[in-house]
Amino acid sequence: MYEVAQGTDQQTQLAKAAFKRMKTLRHPNILAYVDGLETEKSLYLVTEQVTPLATHLKAQAEKGGSGELEVSWGLHQIVKALSFLVNDCHLLHNNLGLWAVFVDRAGEWKLGALDHVAPEQGDPSGALLPAPKTVYPDMEKYDPPEMPNSNTGEKWAGEVWRMGCLIWEVFNGPLPRASSLRSLGKIPKALVPHYCELVGANPRARPNPARFLQNCRAPGGFLSNSFVESNLFLEEIQIKEPAEKQQFFQDLSDNLDSFPEDFCKHKVLPQLLTAFEFGNAGAVVLTPLFKVGKFLSAEEYQQKIIPVIVKMFSSTDRAMRIRLLQQMEQFIQYLNEAAVNSQIFPHVVHGFTDTNPAIREQTVKSMLLLAPKLNETNLNQELMRHFARLQARDEQGPIRCNTTVCLGKIAPYLNAGTRQRVLISAFSRATKDPFPASRSAGVLGFAATHNYYSVTESAARILPTLCTLTVDPDKTVRDQAFKAIKSFLSKLETVSEDPTKLAEIASSAQPTGVSSSWTGWAVTGVSSLTSKLIRNTPGGPEAGGPAENSGPDQATSSEAKTPQASLTHLAASSRANQSQTLEVADNDDEPIGDRWDDEEDWGSLEDPEKGQTDPDDWNTDWSGMSSSKKKASDRGVHIVICADPCRCRGHTLAFNWSLNISCRCAVCPPGLSKAELSKKKREERRKELEAKRAERKAAKGPLKLGARKLD
Question: Which of 307-321, 456-470, 514-528 has the highest mean pLDDT?
Fold first, then answer.
């Protein structure tokens, strides 16, 4: 607001000129005019919300200083605005400096202070605006040396000189005198040669703003960096091809960590939301979206990102679904229970029946985070129904194992009736699973949830089940079984010696909160089982070491973690490819203890139609196998993993325990190493090729003299 009565005639003339220019000049890099009112007594001018550059730089200095990336994009914007005035509008700013630049909330630099803007050929009406130094004497130091003779050099010579003064002040602070421009100070080396061109003594050698911008954008230039490139792409994103947008969002995730926070919140985030809402960006926007979400407050997150996430869960795109499940830990704390139960969980449960094993696996893991927010019906009925079916009928052993692990982790959130009905039956069924890691998970599940069982249940139902595993083919399972048996027997002996402790044990059978002991066995016990068994002979030297803190007596000393926190310890298993087969990845750098859920394709272990009479019944077990496999079981044949999976690629092996016959593969020739097998194949191939050549030669017969060979 400008009061006419309080200003001089020159100031009033400049205020009216600025009001006129603000209304007529529109450019993304020029301060935007919103509204205004001109009366005889005052001028009212409304612009976008901005902060003076000097104030912004001071605030950034208190935080550690503005980064070169932010300054590079800011200078790019000011030079572009100056080029627009000089080359497109044929206007001269005449007042460029630190005071003429403003910064919006996204960190964008805007050119303002249009008080002295005039046509380069002079005003046709003959009106002359006063020079800045006549109104503000301190402005004289920003005038170029040829200022008294304004006809020397190009029209823009004075503009680019002031641009050089602006660059000096951005890096070094207020300019004390014109001669200080010779001292480079903190100006970056990549910018020095171009800066020297701006403040050169010869006005004819000073570059046009457009050429200066082009020179700085050359490879290795100060304005050639990922931040400027990203900003330029965002400005033109509406006209980019879908493939270009996909590639941009993929690369954006790696660059966001180095970008300014305000830029991410106010410029990148709206573009990400728009790309998902109106474009076909799909799952590729999720990673940068969650990265930007870290800069938001809880209220901003609820307002801007949660509605988009809820909408994403209803998508049928598998890539988006699995990315949402994998990154749920980043946004689960912002979801309220009503949204989880009514809008998210009904879509998530479809993953339990998906044909892609990777989606089923991630869906199981996501329950660790969703369980605390599920209502009574979804948690104790709907979820338990899906868990029962997965544990009974899923063809992937590691997924059945993970289901058992997840059940134990969410046990504290189940009501007492569900725990009594489900836990013992589920863990008992897991101990009969053909997959060794699942059997071990069942044993350790009993140990981790021992406080939920009464003395009678421990003696009559749990110990008989555990005793059968003391003769399990896998040594790790046997070791875990012995530990668990000792723990339960210790509790029974305690009650037998002192019956008064029965009430104390009974009262501890209904604990509240998250069981800290579960983390101990789930991470350090089962986590080392699956990966070992896939790669080594069962009961071999590498599979024989049980977890140290897997029992309930040691588990209390383990690090207490919530299911949400311990999700990071569930190592990502092999991802299913398009044909939905799994590959076992061997990462030597990753600790064995963190690779507990690598997936191994066991094929169809049971007929889904005939194998189980009721897959949702927790009391069913693995005895209901298909007829062919049941006959094999009657003959004493047990399904195990090959001792050399690299050679036989996971072929089923028959091991007759009753006859004590050594493990062998039905496909791999016995006694041959991998190298010998390859050599044999090459020899067979060579003989086959020689036979074909001899056959073709015999069919042609001898060539006659003078005959021409046609082939």
Answer: 456-470
CB 69 within 8 A of CB 258: yes
Query: 623: which DSSP letter?
Result: T
CA–CA distance, 331 with 310 (Å, rounded to integer): 11
Residue 394 has phi, psi (to 5 degrees) of -65, 135
Cα–Cα nearest to 249, from 295, 294, 278, 282: 282
Residue-wise pLDDT tens digits, 595-615: 333 333 323 223 333 333 344
Residue partners of 52: CB distance under 8 A and separation at least 6: 99, 101, 102, 103
Q: For 369-377, what is the mean pLDDT?
A: 93
Our count of domains for the chain comes to: 1
User: What DSSP character marks residue 54?
Assistant: H
Q: What is the CATH number of the domain that holds 181?
A: 1.10.510.10
Phi then psi for residue 644, to 5 deg, are: -130, 75
Question: Following DSSP, what letter does each residue of 212-230 receive, concatenated?
Answer: HHHHHTSTTSTT-SHHHHH
251 in a structural domain:
no
Q: Which residue has the higher pLDDT, 208 or 583?
A: 208
Q: Residue type for 169, please?
A: E
DSSP 452: G
Question: What CA–CA distances, in Å, run from 93 to 44, 160, 293, 681?
Answer: 22, 10, 40, 81
Distance between CA atoms of residues 627 and 612, nearest Å: 12
What is the Cα–Cα distance from 35 to 30, expressed in whole angstroms?
A: 15
β-pairing, 51-52 vs 33-38, is unpaired
Phi, psi of 675 (to 5 degrees): -65, -40
Q: Is the pLDDT of residue 138 over 50?
A: yes
CA distance 530 to 595: 7
Does residue 141 lie within any of the structural domains? yes
Q: Which two tokens stand for residue 685?
A: 């191939």
Buried b (16+ CB within 10 A) or exposed e, 38-66: eeeeebebebeebeebbebbeebeeeeeb
| DSSP letter (8 states) at residue 173 | -
CA distance 339 to 333: 12
Domain range for residue 165?
Answer: 15-30+51-121+132-219
66 in a structural domain: yes
**Angle formed by the axes of helices 436-448 and 475-497, to 10°?**
20
Residue 648's closest CA among 600, 606, 683? 600
Residue 21 lies inside a defined structural domain of this protein = yes
Q: What is the pLDDT of residues 488-499, one digit of tens each?
A: 999 899 888 888
The residue assigned the tokens 């080594």 is 536
Query: In 378-474, which ranges are continuous DSSP H helix?
Result: 384-393, 397-409, 416-430, 436-448, 455-457, 463-467
Torsion sign over Cα 379, 383, 388, 392: negative
